[in-house]
Q: What sequence folds into this?
């Protein structure tokens, strides 16, 4: 077999991808894939070993490692910022949009925030070891359902380098070994942060392989990582809709989907309209770029005339564009006509779709048809309407008289947030440390056999 | 576009697959795929509608439907057995192995057992509506985590037609609409059973689309079904390792994996050897063809000389073949030499791999390396050994002084069994009705907004 080594030009130093070409079979790519896969398998095997240790160490040891990680990041600040400066320079050379460069940028303040985030994770209760439930069978078997780590978690994420420290801390606290795969534009920053974290982990007496990073920005590596069934227990994608869809379509390892939010607020005919204005305004305007922001407002026709014109003025003053149904436009003449597409759209911007409906039924049907099952709210005084809305709307979080913006691990009191799940298996809604665990049945007997 | 209609010869009547060939693009298969997909999408949309109704009906209505299903199966017995006779005839004509024909065969007794199984599901507690937990936030928000149905569940299974009734009953009780996709050899039987179930469901006032069956045995239909993200909430494969692997590799919809069991029993140096003999014999011999049967026995070297020769004789008398390590073969000369492959193998037969180990550590390391994380047991008198084994062995169920055969929904007291999960997300170990549900956060406020 003839082999030729090519240095891939678009791979950032110091890592060099070796491209191997098999002249006899002319199967260059598949051989390279095989080598990428072999390296990942070695990493994942090391992660499995580390995970077995990590699953059984005390909370004190894990917290010690976390505090060392926080200190280490600050001590290694100059080194990390130097690596980040190189990423930024390359991003500028490649003409990346300034918003992306901004997300990529680290500074002393952001490093301090990363360290503080890790310290907060250290301060949280350890989810591992909790006895979730337990019972005794008639034959005397005692069954305990005990919370244990997932094992090896892969996190696939985009440009913000702070996710590297955040994800590593959450996984370590929940007893999981982590394999990190960040965006190519932050490769040097992520390497420097990971190197710092690994030193801290080792200094606390834990295996270095508790925290690892995929050592290439090659897309094929991410694909292979998503298919390491038996070695990787779970994948958590963190990023935009495109990244999440790619992971969902590619992975054979189970995925925790963190999804889009096409969230609604419905103002019922008996709503406190002052409250409706406050809650809906908050849901749209307080931070429009996030998944739990409101995208469509539904208003009952009995109160539309009283509510909509004034509320629309309030939105206009805040710079919000309104895309309305025909009846909305009769009340708010400056509103843009809404198309069918608008009801499906997660704007993540100061744009709001508005529709007048004639009943609670119509509101629920609209939400269940167009919504993304993330967060939905009703404003009402009616117990019956509240009960029907919360029962019949199919979403991770359903609110009565409160802003959809509360769908968040911190706001729910979890102390940390892994993401917000819009899938129905394993976790739904805000995910904290507990959602990075699984359970194990521990069964005690005294010689029971099955007959 | 030219179109030609071909009746696929191997598709059982009365359903006719229409094969469409696009002469201009010569893309016959993809157009057929598209039609198959369209039909599935229509079914899944109808299932979604039905699921919304089913999620909110009372337990009494669901139980009424279940009892009607049980009665209906008995009333429609002649019709179902006629369809089954046609399946059996075709299976014989195609030369299917007698064991498969046996699994396929229905009779009065098996029909009665199916009906009785449905009645038992009716008698179980309804998992839907349970408040799993709830708390109040400092800002006054009241958060409830409420158990709700998954929505639309697809069950992909193999030859036994009784799974059709069983899966439909479990899904209906847990408030889920179900799309069933059984094996091609049982197509007529499954159609007849489904038709009977649907009549019962409708007679109880529920939508017919609560229970549906994929109307073709085409493999492409199964593939498409596994990729209906947004319409199907979850797939449960029920069958052999091949089926489960195919679903894991193909599906983009979240899957609950029910996996293989390479289960171990470890006899520690301080074990009650009489208990060890009873428990290990039960784990191997009581029903060797199932996933929770023992496949490898590990014996501490300090007791191997006393335990193994007599236990091996007991196994031999029961027709068990032993594949032993070298030290085992010194004690049991008739044992076949074990190869590396044996430690990985789920025999599902009267074969047992036996290895002598020198420590608890070696036993744990062997299990974590070769095991499939299903069910593992230790026989010991030592509290410390029991605690270390249950902590450090990575498996869905870990037993102290009891047979691995207890890993079962009924034995755990769940009253029903959906399968045994060997994955770590969502459910791990025996799955009952509760594992066919998810949760929803219901949040009550009085105008809270986020600041």
A:
């Amino acid at each position: 077999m003839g082999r030729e080594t090519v240095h891939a030009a678009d791979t950032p130093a110091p890592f060099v991808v070796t491209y191997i070409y098999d002249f006899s079979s002319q199967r260059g790519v598949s051989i390279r894939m095989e080598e990428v896969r072999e390296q990942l398998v070695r990493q994942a095997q090391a992660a499995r070993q580390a995970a077995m240790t990590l699953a059984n160490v005390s909370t004190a040891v894990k917290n010690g490692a976390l505090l060392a990680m926080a200190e280490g990041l600050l001590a290694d600040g100059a080194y990390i910022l130097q690596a980040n400066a190189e990423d930024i320079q390359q991003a500028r050379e490649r003409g990346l949009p300034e918003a992306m460069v901004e997300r990529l940028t680290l500074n002393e303040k952001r490093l301090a925030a990363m360290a503080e985030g890790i310290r907060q994770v250290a301060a949280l209760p350890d989810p591992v070891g909790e006895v979730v439930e337990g019972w005794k069978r008639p034959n005397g078997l005692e069954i305990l359902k005990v919370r244990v780590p997932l094992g090896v978690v892969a996190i696939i994420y985009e440009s913000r380098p702070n996710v590297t420290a955040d994800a590593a801390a959450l996984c370590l606290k929940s007893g999981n070994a982590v394999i990190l795969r960040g965006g190519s534009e932050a490769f040097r920053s992520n390497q420097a942060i990971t190197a710092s974290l690994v030193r801290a982990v080792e200094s606390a007496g834990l295996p270095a392989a508790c925290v690892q990073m995929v050592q290439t920005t090659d897309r094929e590596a991410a694909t292979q990582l998503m298919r390491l069934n038996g070695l990787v227990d779970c994948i958590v994608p963190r990023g935009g809709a495109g990244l999440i869809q790619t992971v969902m379509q590619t992975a054979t390892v189970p995925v925790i989907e963190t999804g889009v939010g096409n969230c609604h607020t419905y103002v019922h005919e008996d709503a406190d309209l002052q409250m409706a204005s406050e809650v809906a305004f908050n849901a749209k305007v307080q931070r429009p770029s996030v998944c739990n922001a409101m995208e469509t407002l539904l208003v009952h026709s009995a109160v539309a005339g009283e509510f909509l014109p004034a509320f629309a003025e309030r939105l206009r003053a805040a710079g919000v564009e309104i895309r309305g149904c025909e009846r909305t436009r009769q009340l708010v003449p400056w509103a843009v006509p809404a198309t069918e597409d608008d009801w499906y759209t997660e704007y993540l911007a100061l744009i709001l779709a508005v529709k007048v409906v004639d009943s609670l039924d119509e509101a629920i049907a609209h939400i269940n048809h167009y919504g993304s099952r993330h967060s939905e709210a009703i404003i009402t005084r009616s117990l019956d309407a509240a009960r029907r809305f919360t029962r019949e709307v199919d979403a991770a979080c359903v609110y009565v008289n409160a802003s959809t913006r509360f769908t968040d691990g911190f706001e729910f009191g979890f102390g940390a947030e892994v993401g917000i799940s819009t899938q129905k298996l394993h976790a739904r809604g805000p995910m904290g440390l507990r959602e990075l665990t699984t359970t194990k049945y521990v069964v005690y007997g005294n010689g029971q056999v099955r007959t």
